[in-house]
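hey so i finally got around to running the thing on that chain from the lab meeting. sorry it took forever, my laptop kept dying and i had to restart like 3 times. anyway pasting the input first so we r on the same page abt which one it is
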Amino acid sequence: DPRIRMTAWRPKELPAWLRLAFSAAESDLVDPGRQQSWLAFVREAVEDLNPAFGIIDYEYDSLYGQTAFEKTTGAVGILHTDQIPRSRQVLRGYDWLTICSQEVADRLGGAQALRGTGAFNEVAQLPGGGVWLLATADYRDYDEAAMNRVFHALAPVLPPGLQMYGHGRTYRIVYQDAAAVRHAGE
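ok and heres what got predicted. didnt touch it at all, straight out
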């Protein structure tokens, strides 16, 4: 399909890491058949790996390699060489689909504990390591309430920092400091 673009690269500063990015029209996720095809494709790609991080996000900054969450914490300009190695300890962001490394999932109590949060429609332990977290069965249902549930479930592994509005733009994230949410739950 000519509308789909895939990029795979190894940053020369981090040769042990492989980065994969897929681009397609957001309208693909509005169509239930296409969204299921995308989910199946991504699931097959990560099934036997322990990916460090993954999301389906339409606000990903390919120039800096930043998620919307990273862009709004004042981290603009932080190189991917700083973010990538930390992705096994800290979650880089969240969205309708979030894939976290096994190390990050373990910090949250594992797949069973994540199921117990009620924040996700689907939680699956990946055979190669890592956890697949699908917020809602349908992309069109990923609304503010669903986003809040996901943020609160994942706050313990999100970097601290007050979420700021970026250049007059509102991103599809919860504008709260994950550290404050963590401390409120203690």
